[in-house]
Automatic annotation (TrEMBL):
Signal peptide: 1-35
Name this polypeptide is given: Polar amino acid transport system substrate-binding protein
Region described as Disordered: 65-90
UniProt KW Ligase keyword: no
Keywords, in A-Z order: Signal, Transport
Residue ranges of every copy of the Solute-binding protein family 3/N-terminal domain listed in the record: 100-328
InterPro entries noted in UniProt: Bact_solute-bind_prot3, Solute-binding_3/MltF_N
Source species: Corynebacterium freneyi
Stated family: Belongs to the bacterial solute-binding protein 3 family.
PANTHER family: ABC TRANSPORTER GLUTAMINE-BINDING PROTEIN GLNH, AMINO ACID ABC TRANSPORTER PERMEASE
Short name of one Pfam family: SBP_bac_3
Length: 344
């Protein structure tokens, strides 16, 4: 709470009482920390140095060199099931009987999956993609139930049956391929670095490359590829490991980190929310996002791939991309799916 000074309109006989009350207040405030009376950069510096601003929930600092990096090995991703044909009722009887498909998304990734404050509804590129999948199953884009899934919970949510599919910045890696089935990719992402915009930090603090992250504090989502990139490229950095990328926006605004390393699709959302930031580097890695389904659920993966090819042919994918990401990452194109023949 910010206190404001004002001149008390005491009548003359009451001023002694007012002075005594003020003295008592000063005594109490000497014992209890109070909000500053004015905006003062020195107050902010003292608060930061003393750790006055709490970290996001469950976030923690960790030195990047506490363990070796576990980067994807670069192996080619296996082909995805061929797009489905035939009656969907025969392919997905349980989902049809339920009357909706259950999809795990994020609700705080601006531009990708977030809750629109003006409508209270989920919106974004990945939310719209899930609706297109529902459209091809039920002929109704609203026949989808969204469930929030943390980035560390995606595989468990699929294996436990809590969701039918995950549409939440889930990149294709050989490790995940071993426990999850994937659709063809729907988006290409390139890891990059986001920092406060020029002029908001000292020139000596400028960051423009991965090597510049050494001796800096860097926000990444726990168990993400960007975490491994920082461990590999800047072992002298200090990681702030968070559960959600939206926590990185708060952390950089609170000066708890010097940079955020994430996919450019995620950085675009942060930059949109806070124009006081800027993306200074892209291309630290290139990955593909795909829809994840439970291991062995080839029928659903094939159904999703049917949607992938339909939105390519009718221009829906490009429309969604231009609407949500085009202004920040121009020139995006739908990845080409590589399919295999198999029984469904």
């Amino acid at each position: 709470m910010r206190l404001r000074r004002f001149r008390a309109p005491f009548p003359a006989p009451a001023r002694a009482v007012g002075a005594a009350a003020a003295a008592t207040l000063l005594t109490l405030t000497a014992c209890t920390p109070q909000a500053p009376l004015v905006d003062d950069p020195y107050n902010e510096i003292i608060e930061r140095a003393s750790g006055g601003t709490p970290l996001p929930p469950e976030a923690r600092y960790e030195k990047a060199d506490t363990r070796p990096a576990n980067l994807p090995d670069g192996a080619a991703t296996p082909p995805s099931p061929t797009p489905a044909t035939g009656p969907v009722e025969e392919r997905l009887p349980d989902i049809i009987d339920r009357g909706r498909i259950i999809v795990g998304v994020d609700q705080s990734l601006n531009l990708l999956g977030f809750r629109d404050a003006s409508t209270g509804e989920l919106a974004g590129f990945e939310v719209a993609l899930a609706q297109e999948i529902a459209r091809d199953i039920f002929d109704d884009p609203d026949a989808v139930e969204f469930r929030y899934v943390d980035s560390t919970e995606r595989i468990e949510a699929l294996s436990s049956g809590r969701v039918d599919a995950i549409v939440r910045t889930m990149s294709l890696t050989p490790e995940r391929e071993a426990v999850v089935d994937f659709s063809a990719p729907y988006l290409t992402a390139r890891a990059g670095i986001l920092v406060p915009a020029s002029g908001s930090v000292d020139e000596t603090d400028e960051i423009s490359s991965a090597a510049d992250l050494n001796d800096r504090r860097v926000c990444v989502a726990a168990e993400s590829t960007p975490e491994e990139i920082v461990r590999a490229e800047a072992p002298g950095a200090t990681l702030l490991l968070v559960r959600s990328w939206s926590d990185c926006l708060v952390a950089i605004q609170q000066h708890q980190v010097d940079a955020v390393v994430a996919d450019d699709t995620i950085l675009a959302g942060i930059n949109d929310q806070d124009p006081g930031t800027t993306i200074v580097r892209r291309g630290l890695s290139t990955e593909s996002y795909a829809v994840g389904v439970a291991d062995g659920n080839v029928a659903l993966a094939a159904q999703v791939n049917l949607t992938m090819e339909r939105i390519r042919a009718d221009g829906t994918w490009q429309q969604l991309y231009d609407t949500w990401l085009g202004a920040f990452l121009p020139g995006g194109q739908q990845p080409v799916g590589i399919y295999r023949e198999e029984d469904r």
